[in-house]
Specification:
The protein is of the alpha/beta class. It folds into two domains: 149 residues, 3-Layer(aba) Sandwich (Rossmann fold), CATH 3.40.50; 248 residues, Alpha-Beta Horseshoe (pyruvate-formate lyase- activating enzyme), CATH 3.80.30. The protein contains 18 helices and 16 strands. Strand 10, helix 8 and strand 11 form a beta-alpha-beta unit. It is globular, with a radius of gyration of 24 Å. It starts with 6 loop residues before the first strand and ends in a 23-residue tail after the last helix. 41% of the residues are buried. About 5% of the residues have low confidence. The chain binds cobalamin and iron/sulfur cluster. Cobalamin binds next to helix 1, strand 3, strand 4 and helix 5.
């Protein structure tokens, strides 16, 4: 079979658990060339030499690479090596990272062709021309954007291994009508839906093949309420038909648009079956205006409170550090406000200057200094100096470990007290000074660091008990310097079935006191942590 392969569609995913929907969409739409095209995914961290060896095996005539901010550095080296070792192989690039600022990118200079924007139609045409020996003279081709009902769905391209072990991305629409300056989708200028009934038939087929976790990549799943209702209704139908066979669905919502009909559906999902990603980014109205983000803060707050109280959904809210016009106090006020609303996770991201995103227009006015290297994180602004930005970077990492991980549910209220951001930042500064780093911290070191810091503030007994209980409940089996782990203090975190990812499962146990549900079984998780979809 390998010797017939003329086209290799390849990428480096962020992790093994992630799949590339783009490669599958491209292959599904290749027509007669689909049979001579192979999907070859690897994970960032693999050496470019190994990637090239694997992708050139079988002597393809065309290697097409999907380039994103997380893989552009190693893929640049990959293209360089392909051109050294097999200059006759045509290299085509596409993906969000090479869809803008093409002229200034080394990887684009090395490649033969770059397709910007949507790839299905234009790549199929280009591949046909290349294999026919008549490639176009243009190097950069603007991707054609057909009505989405003309495209073949990519879902049959998921293998059985994908279904068993990896995160399945699905999409009900493309684009976003909003214009948030930091986001690439601000350039979309519209939303385009996939036809609902055929999409549901595809989801049904995936489910019949064994898929149980569905991650929607739609930017704003709740824009068109009717479509959202049909899709959520479809999953509720599956859950009701087989309550013992759980399904896990992830969608991204805009927080200030939850009509009653949608609320009723969201409330019907049982624990462990629904995750909602909710971009808040900032609560500061002046900053929102500066980044052209339309958001009704009062409604956002009311809806988040409602979601927390009336649904069992796992809420993953996003905030950004370093937005134009936002200083530490403003960020802290937003963080505290969000903590009080109680989402299970708050992803604190550092502002990035994504290629093409409008934020660069604010750079001079707000002295936004971005790293020149992917992922182009901001290093300072006129409101946040480099040292403070550094501190906030550590803060974000430590918060992810103690706040978002679900491992510290009993300790967290003691740590955060009445001013969550200020307390967490003080602890984060202290721990970073002590360890000299904020990454690769063993779990036990975090527990001990929390104990020592809280004990020094007079909460030794309460903090020790909370930490020991959290440690026992997380199922960790190491030793803590401040006490034996009383396994009787807590049972291992558990959930309602095998579809729910591990991090969400830990939060479920925290929520168990709030939401009274009956049967919980041990979960065998198949996915590493990380909940965000961006
Ligand atoms: C899934 C996802 C992830 C996954 C990774 C997936 C993977 N495969 O490894 C995770 C959750 C890890 C992730 C992380 C991040 N992500 Co992300 N992610 C997405 C998301 C939600 C879906 C991607 C997708 O499947 N889209 C659907 C497919 C069909 O669209 P597409 O990929 O654009 O492909 C089309 C075209 O681009 C083109 N095309 C693509 N590849 C190719 C190749 C060829 C040869 C051709 C011809 C055409 C072509 O054709 C395709 C079909 O039309 C997008 C947002 C979105 N909805 O697209 C953001 C997005 C890709 N992420 C983005 C960002 C910024 C990040 C982060 C930096 C954010 C952060 N919090 O730090 C991190 C970086 C991770 C890291 N380790 O450094 C940006 C990308 C910017 C860029 N220049 O690459 C996006 C676009 C979101 C945004 N804000 O605008 N992400
Ligand atoms: S941040 Fe969300 S709402 Fe704003 S442009 Fe990007 S996808 Fe759209």
């Amino acid at each position: 079979m390998t010797e017939n392969i003329q086209i290799v569609l390849a990428t480096l995913n962020a992790r093994y658990a992630h799949t590339s929907l783009a490669l599958r969409a491209l292959r599904a739409n290749l027509g007669e060339l689909r049979e001579v095209c192979a999907l070859r995914e690897l994970v960032i961290g693999v050496s470019p030499e190994t990637a090239v060896e694997q992708w050139l095996a079988g002597r393809p005539r065309l290697v097409a690479l999907s380039v994103s901010v997380w893989n552009v550095v190693p893929l640049t080296r990959v293209v360089e090596l392909i051109k050294q070792r097999a200059p006759e192989v045509v290299v085509v690039l596409g993906g969000p990272e090479v869809s803008h600022e093409v002229e200034s990118q080394a990887i684009c200079a090395l490649a033969d062709h770059v397709v910007t924007g949507w790839g299905e139609v234009t790549f199929a045409r280009l591949a046909r021309a290349i294999l026919a020996g008549a490639p176009p003279t243009e190097k950069v081709l603007a991707g054609e954007q057909p009505p989405l009902d003309r495209l073949a769905f990519p879902y049959a391209e998921y293998s059985d291994e994908d279904l068993r072990q990896r995160r399945l991305y699905v999409e009900a629409s493309r684009g976003c009508p909003f214009r948030c300056a930091f986001c690439l989708s601000a350039l979309d200028r519209g939303v385009w839906p996939f036809p609902t009934e055929p999409l549901l038939a595809e989801l049904q087929r995936l489910h019949a093949r064994g898929a149980r976790r569905f991650t929607f990549v739609d930017r704003t799943f709740n824009l068109a309420i009717e479509r959202a209702e049909s899709i959520l209704g479809f999953f509720l139908g599956l859950l009701r038909a087989r309550p013992d066979d759980p399904v896990f669905v992830h969608v991204e919502l805009i927080p200030d648009h939850l009509p009653e009909r949608l609320k009723a559906l969201l409330a019907a999902f049982p624990p462990g079956s629904l995750q909602l990603e909710i971009g808040v980014q900032t609560f500061n109205p002046e900053v929102q205006a500066l980044i052209s983000r339309r958001q009704d803060n009062a409604l956002t707050e009311a809806n988040l409170r409602w979601l927390r109280a009336q649904t069992a959904a796992h809420l993953h809210a996003d905030l950004i550090i370093g937005l134009p016009g936002e200083d530490l106090d403003s960020f802290a006020a937003g963080f505290d406000r969000l903590v009080r609303l109680g989402p299970q996770e708050i992803q604190v991201g550092i502002l990035k200057r994504l290629r093409g995103a409008p934020i660069h227009r604010q750079s001079a006015r707000f002295d936004l200094r971005f790293s020149p290297d992917p992922p182009y994180g901001v290093r300072s602004t006129d409101h946040i100096d480099p040292a403070t930005m550094e501190r906030l970077t550590h803060f974000a990492r430590f918060w992810d470990r103690v706040g978002n991980s679900g491992r510290f549910s009993r300790t967290l209220p003691i740590l955060l007290g009445d001013s969550p951001c200020a307390r967490l930042l003080t602890w984060s500064d202290w721990l970073h000074a002590r360890l000299g780093r904020s990454h690769a911290i063993p779990l036990e070191t975090l527990y001990e660091g929390l104990y020592e810091w809280l004990a020094a503030r007079g909460d030794a007994e309460m903090a020790g008990a909370a930490l020991l209980a959290d440690y026992a409940a997380s199922g960790a089996r190491g030793r803590l310097s401040f006490g034996a782990t009383p396994s009787s203090l807590g049972s291992r975190d558990s959930a309602n079935g095998v579809a729910t990812p591990r991090r969400q499962v830990r939060h479920l146990s925290r929520d168990a006191a709030l939401i009274d549900r009956e049967s919980r079984h041990q979960v065998e998780t198949m996915e590493p942590e990380t909940a965000a979809i961006v």
